[in-house]
Amino acid sequence: MEYIISFLLSMVPLVELRGALPYALTQGIPTFWAYVICIIGNMLPVPVIFFFARKVLEWGKDKRFIGKFFTFCIEKGHRGGEKLKAKAGRGLFVALLLFVGIPIPGTGAWTGTLAASFLDMDFKSSVTAVMLGVVLAGVIMGTGTYVIMFFASLF
Length: 155
Description:
α3 (31-43) packs antiparallel against α8 (123-153). The chain has one domain (44-153). The radius of gyration is 16 Å and the shape is globular. It starts with a helix and ends with a helix. It is 79% helix and 0% strand. The chain contains eight helices and no strands. The protein is mainly α.
């Protein structure tokens, strides 16, 4: 059951691998399988986000009940994309990888993919950068989780 919960958690925006991996590791899922499950779960929505999220958001931005939220998402995608472009210049691939890979709130695979779609990056480069960023975030979160678990076991 923990495997399924970890997989589903890693697909949820804002939680993603950054929340699912610590959950999986603290539930006793072997490290290798925790990484595999959480990376696949985090990457599964990426193609859908890349190809359809921008179109759906543009469609819904002027709708009565969902318009404000969709406008917020569009603005967040534009801001993320512009920040990446301003900082990266021609190194957009590395900037996207680091944007997704450094685990701070609002910079995961969902936002990174949306920003890449707003920047009109090609699909292959976007997915590769996001995937490497997810792996980097996994290494950081896994290491942090094990350090915390180690110190917690001392008390």
